[in-house]
Amino acid sequence: MVIRVKNLVKRYGNLVALDHLSLDVKEGEIFGLLGPNGSGKTTAINCILSLLKFDKGDIEVFNKPMTPESYDTKRDIGIVMQNVAVYKELTVYENIDYFCGLYVPDKVKRKQLVDEAIQFVGLEDYVKFQPKKLSGGLLRRLNIACGIAHKPKLIILDEPTVAVDPQSRNKILEGILELNRQGATIVYTSHYMEEVEQICSRILIIDKGKAIASGTKEELKNMITIGEKITLQTYGLTPEQISAAGNLPNVLSAEYNGSNLVIKSTKGKNNLESVLDFAKQEGIQFGTIYSELPTLNDVFLEITGKELRD
Amino acid sequence: MQVFKLCLKIIKDNIPTLMIYVVVFLGVSILATSSMSNESKEMASFTPTKTDIAFISDETGPLVDGLKEELSKVANFVEIERDTEALQDALYFRRVTYALYIPNGFTERFMGGEDVKIQKTTIPESYSSAYVDISVEKYFDLARLYLTNVENIAEEELVSKVLKDLSVTTNVELYDTRANKADTSYANFYFNYLSYSMLGVLVMGMSALMVVFSDKDIKRRNACSPISTSRINMQFILANLTFAMVTWFIMVGFCIMFNFKNSLTPATLYFVLNSFIFMICGTSLSYLIGTAVTNQEALSAVCNVVTLGPSFISGVFVPQELISQSVLRIASFTPSYWYVKANNEIAGLTSFGFEQLESVFSSILIQLGFAVAMFAVALVVAKRKRYA
Question: Which residues on B lie below 8 Å from A94 (Cβ)?
Answer without folding.
Answer: 9
